[in-house]
UniProtKB/TrEMBL annotation:
<dbReference type="InterPro" id="IPR013216">
    <property type="entry name" value="Methyltransf_11"/>
</dbReference>
<dbReference type="GO" id="GO:0032259">
    <property type="term" value="P:methylation"/>
</dbReference>
<protein>
    <submittedName>
        <fullName>Methyltransferase-like protein 27</fullName>
    </submittedName>
</protein>
<dbReference type="InterPro" id="IPR029063">
    <property type="entry name" value="SAM-dependent_MTases_sf"/>
</dbReference>
<dbReference type="GO" id="GO:0008757">
    <property type="term" value="F:S-adenosylmethionine-dependent methyltransferase activity"/>
</dbReference>
<dbReference type="Pfam" id="PF08241">
    <property type="entry name" value="Methyltransf_11"/>
</dbReference>
<feature type="domain" description="Methyltransferase type 11">
    <location>
        <begin position="83"/>
        <end position="177"/>
    </location>
</feature>
<keyword id="KW-0808">Transferase</keyword>
<keyword id="KW-0489">Methyltransferase</keyword>
Amino acid sequence: MADEMNATKSPVAKQATSVVRYHEFLKNYTDDAGTLTAEQKCAKLYDNWTTYEQDVANASYNGASLSTAMLSELCPDKNISILDCGAGSGLVGEKLRAEGFTNLTGNDISQTLLDIAEKKNIYKKLVCCDGGNVAKLPFEENEFDALICTGCVSPTAIRPKAFVDWTRVVKPGGVFLLLARHRYWQTDLTNKWPKLGFIDEFDTVIQDLENSKKVEMIFKRVVPDYVEGTEGLAFAFRVL
Ligand SMILES: C[S@@+](CC[C@H](N)C(=O)[O-])C[C@H]1O[C@@H](n2cnc3c(N)ncnc32)[C@H](O)[C@@H]1O
């Protein structure tokens, strides 16, 4: 989670756990050796990350509260049905519940993190599935009023191609909101690991969705202090 580029500079020893873990993951991820698919690699990372909540707290992760505040701004009705895509251990669900949203469904590729979320009793339904490269999520057409995806859209986890199916499960007039590290849309990551090209795919998917009148952008917003004091980038779209 934490900024792997600053791994050795962090003055706080506790932060190193998440920094080192994620850095190792990226190194292994870009190494061709091994037979795991991209999704299996991600599931393995998070399934073995039993200190996830402690580590992200130590990394000053504010993604859950930032995305929840933006969704609240977009959706004043607290009764809407929301899919928390990449729900993980339920940090976003906790914030949504505290804001008054109660109709929550979550999906994630890591059963270990979903087990933590389950114990919090905030989601009506939690589904373990790949939400990254799937043609179809295991949800009905128009099942949700809103979809929130926090900290998961990335070159290694939920790729932009997944947005196409988001427009199927979110009903017309509904919204989807994503928030992730700003640096994924900057060039330093792809310069270091060219295989993690992400920006072109993002632009192509969004352009196709806009051109085919499936979505319109509500906002694109840089948010400070997303994790370890670094910026996040949020996009909100209305499904047409
Ligand atoms: C950084 S965590 C964020 C979790 C949660 N949204 C939060 O804010 O704490 C990224 C999450 O994405 C999930 N993930 C990664 N790849 C995925 C995929 N292909 N499909 C579904 N979930 C995925 C991971 O298991 C992990 O829970």
